[in-house]
């Protein structure tokens, strides 16, 4: 007997799910052990042109009624956003249906509610497409690495910002010119806020940290800085250091293992680091685990067909579980580690200062770092006279001490301008 799938949403991702279900119907049936049949497709505007052929008889604007149908076995949510997606998923689970979703925003904001409903109703919840599109990442973390201890997950999880930073690096373009190009090519939305301010990456970081560290994390726990302040001068400064700037999502255990930090911000990484070679709109995630060592996951982080590939993989898994009368892994938060504040995160800074051309300037600047207990690894002077810039790179220190140092430097009369401040990451790997 066929397993019936209700699809909620038929946009960029949903239309490709329909196409793949149709084109690969025989293979999917063989892999699952029963045919998969589309029971209905909920949309907002039924008359809209779709990227694939959809039987008009399947379209409905009544998503609630579709989810409630007795003959539906699996609900696939690719609407996005918090509501009505959450209510529809909860209703599906209440009816004992398993759910596949690509909804990072919902899982990062209120994943606990959705996971609790899955557990209470004996339903599956699969969400491979929610982080880094086509790249298998959730299942490797949730299942393949379930026997290991993950120390750090560090990745490029937003294609739009990677495209912009890559253009700034390869052409010397400003942020706004690179953004304009990304918009013209369809890599950035007309309103790019969610991407360039780091909200999208922060949602993904929260989901990854929760799985990696078996602890509760929401988007609100993530320290977030976007890339709108990254200048061509920052990019040139990185280049001079043999580095490239990337927007990184970093989930890392503290040295004592009792807490972890979750953050999204631009950072310099050495060009020899595996993540430095991730160009254009690609995504990649670097995982460090106790026994597995260093792993890297790379590929297309978005797009209709790549994301639909991840959704289809989840549909097959959920369908197999359904037929076997079993379930996939539940939410795992047993470790209950605390998320430490950004100030306690240990980082390094690269700082460029426009300073007065006077004797004793370097000593006074160095003293400001020493007062916060931040030690300087290298100092370089660039230019002469009125154009002189001091470029300093620190050793590892608490982020709070580094921010206090920058604040102090801004207030010094000999510092005309703090030209650039950028965290430095990944030198232990490069
Ligand atoms: N696009 C990607 O590359 C990508 C990658 C990874 C994850 N995701 C995630 O996948 C999900 C879907 O993204 P998308 O890019 O496919 O979005 P999209 O193109 O905007 O499609 C959204 C779909 O939901 C439908 N919809 C909206 N409100 C609805 C409602 N109240 N009831 C029923 N249907 C409704 C829309 O109907 P109409 O078509 O009639 O307007 C549309 O078909 C999101 O959670 C997103 O974060 C997307």
UniProtKB/TrEMBL annotation:
Family per record: Belongs to the homoserine dehydrogenase family.
InterPro entries for this protein: ACT-like_dom_sf, ACT_dom, Asp/hSer_DH_NAD-bd, HDH, HDH_cat, HDH_CS, NAD(P)-bd_dom_sf
Enzyme Commission no: 1.1.1.3
Catalytic reaction equation(s): L-homoserine + NAD(+) = L-aspartate 4-semialdehyde + NADH + H(+); L-homoserine + NADP(+) = L-aspartate 4-semialdehyde + NADPH + H(+)
Pathway assigned in UniProt: Amino-acid biosynthesis; L-methionine biosynthesis via de novo pathway; L-homoserine from L-aspartate: step 3/3; Amino-acid biosynthesis; L-threonine biosynthesis; L-threonine from L-aspartate: step 3/5
Keyword tags: Amino-acid biosynthesis, Metal-binding, Methionine biosynthesis, NAD, NADP, Oxidoreductase, Sodium, Threonine biosynthesis
A GO molecular-function annotation: homoserine dehydrogenase activity
Active site: 204 (proton donor)
Domain ACT: 350-423
One GO biological process term: methionine biosynthetic process
Protein name: Homoserine dehydrogenase
PROSITE patterns in the cross-refs: ACT, HOMOSER_DHGENASE
Residues reported in the UniProt entry to bind L-homoserine: 189
Binding site for NADPH: 104
SUPFAM superfamilies reported for this sequence: ACT-like, Glyceraldehyde-3-phosphate dehydrogenase-like, C-terminal domain, NAD(P)-binding Rossmann-fold domains
Cofactor: a metal cation
Annotated positions binding NADP(+): 8-15
Functional summary from the UniProt entry: Catalyzes the conversion of L-aspartate-beta-semialdehyde (L-Asa) to L-homoserine (L-Hse), the third step in the biosynthesis of threonine and methionine from aspartate.
Enzymatic class: oxidoreductase
């Amino acid at each position: 007997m066929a397993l019936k799938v209700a699809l909620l949403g038929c946009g960029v991702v949903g239309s490709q799910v329909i196409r793949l279900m149709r084109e690969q119907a025989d293979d999917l049936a063989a892999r699952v052990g029963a045919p998969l049949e589309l029971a209905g497709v909920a949309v907002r505007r039924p008359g809209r042109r779709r990227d694939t052929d959809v039987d008009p008889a399947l379209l409905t604007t009544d998503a609630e009624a579709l989810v409630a149908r007795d003959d539906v076995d699996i609900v696939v949510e690719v609407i996005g956003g918090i509501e009505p997606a959450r209510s529809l998923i909860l209703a599906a689970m209440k009816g004992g249906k398993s759910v596949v979703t690509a909804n990072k925003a919902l899982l990062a904001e209120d994943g606990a509610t959705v996971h609790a409903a899955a557990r209470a109703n004996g339903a599956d919840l699969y969400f491979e497409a929610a982080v880094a599109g086509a790249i298998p990442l959730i299942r490797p973390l949730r299942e393949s690495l379930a026997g290991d201890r993950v120390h750090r997950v560090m990745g490029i999880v937003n294609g739009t910002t990677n495209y912009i930073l890559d253009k700034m690096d390869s052409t010397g373009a400003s942020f706004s010119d690179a953004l304009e190009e990304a918009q013209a090519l369809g890599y950035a939305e007309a309103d790019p806020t969610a991407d360039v301010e780091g909200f999208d990456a922060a949602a993904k970081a929260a989901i990854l940290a929760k799985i990696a560290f078996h602890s509760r994390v929401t988007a609100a726990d993530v320290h977030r800085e976007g890339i709108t302040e990254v200048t061509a001068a920052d990019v040139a400064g990185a280049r001079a250091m043999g580095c490239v700037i990337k927007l990184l999502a970093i989930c890392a255990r503290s040295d004592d293992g009792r807490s972890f930090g979750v953050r999204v911000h631009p950072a310099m990484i050495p060009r020899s680091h595996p993540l430095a070679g991730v160009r254009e709109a690609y995504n990649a995630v670097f995982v460090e685990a106790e026994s597995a060592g260093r792993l890297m996951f790379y590929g297309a982080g978005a797009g209709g067909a790549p994301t639909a590939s991840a959704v289809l993989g989840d549909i097959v898994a959920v369908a197999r579980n359904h037929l076997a009368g079993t379930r996939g892994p539940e939410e795992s938060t047993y470790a209950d580690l605390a998320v430490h504040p950004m100030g306690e995160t240990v980082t390094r800074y690269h700082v460029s200062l426009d300073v007065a051309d006077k004797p004793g300037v370097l000593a006074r600047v160095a003293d400001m770092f020493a007062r916060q207990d931040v030690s300087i690894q290298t100092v370089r002077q660039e230019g002469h006279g009125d154009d002189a810039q001091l470029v300093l790179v620190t050793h590892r220190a608490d982020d709070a001490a580094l921010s206090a140092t920058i604040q102090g430097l801004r207030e010094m009369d000999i510092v005309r301008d703090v030209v650039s401040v950028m965290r430095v990451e990944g030198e232990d790997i490069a």
